[in-house]
Fold these 2 entries.
Entry 1:
Amino acid sequence: MKLASRMERLGTETAFSVLAKAKALEAEGRGIIHLEIGEPDFDTPAHVIEAGCRALRDGHTHYTPTAGIPELREAIADDVARSRGIDVGPEQVVVTPGGKPIMFFTILALIDEGDEVLLPNPAFPIYESMVNFVGGRPVFVPLRQENGFRFDPGEFAAGLSERTRLVILNSPANPTGGALTAEDIAGLAGILRERPDVYVLSDEIYSRLLYTGDFASISSEEGFGPEARTIILDGFSKTYAMTGWRLGYGVMPEPLAEEVAKLQVNSNSCTSAATQYAGIAALRGPQDGVDNMLAEFLARRDLIVAGLGELSGVDCITPQGAFYAFPRITGTGYSADELADLLLDEAGVACLSGTAFGRHGEGHLRLSYANSRENIGLALERMGDILSRVAR
Ligand SMILES: Cc1ncc(COP(=O)(O)O)c(C=O)c1O
């Protein structure tokens, strides 16, 4: 089949292919423990489900305004303004089916052929995929375990060039669980102040899943608010365990919001109406579901980090946020791809090779601890068994 040549530049998200392989093994009768997919295993809070059902019963079964229903855009503006200590108006908010379209739409709207985009590596693979797709050039800033998977400011500054148009930040981060401190953010803002022509896409989808300290957003820095040059990407998938509802948003300069809405009208028209009503209930209603989920993730984090530390050839630093551990596995003698395959095929533990997130992910695995403590314990046991049998 002859496809447009741009399709050769489009990447993918390995988590979905590993999930498919793991499901195929399950269909053959194998017991698989799923540590590959990045979604909370909790139910959406009951009051949010009820709001979505009520919206359907009340007849909210039609198209909505492209950028989202006004009540939701207002609720998002209020929430983002409060949590980041900034001014936000509803006209700066675009509601999308999940947070992912904000990556696609902002990169499409801002990046011309040959423009450079500075981004972390390892990182969520869709950033690189989208930049390549539109003909931009990704420039990677390595994240290393020694540095808590935070940027080295010198390397960050060195990555900027005359052609840099956009910088992508993601904290707390997928796949490393690393988080940028307030000092890190201030340092990056200091570097970027020299470059007022550069936009920042700040992927804050895990902002509520931070275990220690306060969340720091570059949008809170003087001159970096969403009215100026930061596009905040956030959403409901992780915070409210709503991955299947598809609800996310971007907060950005108003002229860009208009263009992003235009891209949405050219693709999916709008976000599902009932889902948007559920989103209002999530933001305006009780937050104890989020707090309970975070407390459980914290217990699981400590369990998995302690267990990984006992495995020979493996060392794992403590993730600061999200629900991923990113252990270094170089001491096992296996490459990350080899070990991820071995664990799935021989031990029935599905996880991702660090290389699924870029070349600086070599030597690491990503384990999502969005699974029960019991299953995490079992996975660690199975990993211990296999590593003691096949040690190189
Ligand atoms: C860093 C990061 N950003 C964005 C997303 C997209 O989330 P959504 O499901 O809301 O599209 C994910 C999902 O895994 C993610 O890990």
Entry 2:
Amino acid sequence: MATIAVLGAGLGGTIMAYELRDQASKDDRIILINKGSRFSFVPSNPWVAVGWRQRETIEVDLEPACTRRNITLMPQGAERLVPEENRIELLDGTSVSYDYLVIATGPELAFDEIEGFGPGNHTHSICHIDHALAAKQAFDRLVAEPGPVVIGAAQGASCFGPAYEFAFILDKALRDAKVRDRVPMTFITSEPYIGHLGLDGVGDTKGLLESELRNHHIKWITNAKVQRFEIDKVVAEELNEDGSVKTVHEVPSAFTMMLPAFRGVSAVRDIEGLTNPRGFIMVDRHQQNAKYQNVFSVGVCVAIPPMGKTPVPVGVPKTGFMIESMVTATAHNIARLLDGERPNAQGTWNAVCLADFGDGGIAFVAQPQIPPRNVNWSSSGKWVHAAKIGFEKYFLYKIKLGKSEPFYERLALQALGIDKLKSIELEDA
Ligand SMILES: Cc1cc2nc3c(=O)[nH]c(=O)nc-3n(C[C@H](O)[C@H](O)[C@H](O)COP(=O)(O)OP(=O)(O)OC[C@H]3O[C@@H](n4cnc5c(N)ncnc54)[C@H](O)[C@@H]3O)c2cc1C
């Protein structure tokens, strides 16, 4: 009988626990450790921030599904991982031992790296449901008293899709409120060009997104490194190719939302051989850490090197399908270890993204992530908005059900050819 702990019950960790339950034997114990007992669907946060979703509609109580699936949910949260002792110290002073561990703790938001950044300072956030709910109050104030808006992604960010999404969703919400004509909007991004997305573009994301920004009267600044956020403006340097400063912009803003850089959470940071300097978990192609071979990792907390050099640092995004492929590979590999075999599954790590614009959107598929690619496709249209709602409903349904991939979802994915995007590759023996 083995104890397998999953640390973090977000998008990656929850389905990780469900897939492990499917793969492990009945006698193996699966423990899911989280801060709190509720699952929150992060991709819906941009909708929360303009009032299109409430907390209750995008959160799920994990207790019933975990009880049904014989998964022990521990909502105390982790204080510190002690991998030499195969042990996690919890925030309530107790501790949990494991035979295998999957770290799925997502990102810590590095707002402190720029002056005036983050909720409680001069900007709003959509990275967490609590932030998105606070941003909704600021949105209401903006509608009552219209003023300029800045949306974007700061230096070191690795999550660009949601920044574009939120710019267009906000544009739509302001049009619906009939105040858009009094809200000048600017998109400020660390990307070297619009549509780079941390992936050096996918298909024609450059053309598609520039055209959408123009059509929605949103100005932009690329290669931007924010110096500081003030109560009524954003001060950002625009850099040249060689890294020298081209211009310093002072952009007035009554409402600012920029995605921050991410780093690993404190419970797992600064562990020699486990984490890189930013606290991301180092794993090999099997999602396994080289030093602590009973430790695996999935999701945003995994270390992935940047795509290439850019004047302002940008990271590679980790999107839902990519995370699901990491999860499936990890469940398979841990099952192999339990059977006394070597891990042999690799996630395909394809980047698939649906970016909703409120009444349309863009979708892209990059396979593999690094160009040249076998699949390098992007498209736009109203169908993306519908598909994003479908993705939300499916995901919340499977979290409630306690199954990583219900049978009918598998059928639908196969019919659309998407199953291959979250598939894993098995190496020869
Ligand atoms: C605003 C936004 C929108 C996004 N939209 C999309 C999208 O539309 N499509 C897409 O494919 N991707 C999207 N992403 C990217 C990605 O899919 C999400 O960030 C996703 O939530 C990442 O999953 P995760 O499991 O790695 O982390 P998370 O979902 O953030 O989960 C991490 C979990 O770990 C827990 N945790 C952290 N520290 C501890 C601790 N010390 N002890 C115990 N538990 C802990 C947290 O409470 C949380 O439950 C979006 C990202 C953001 C920020």
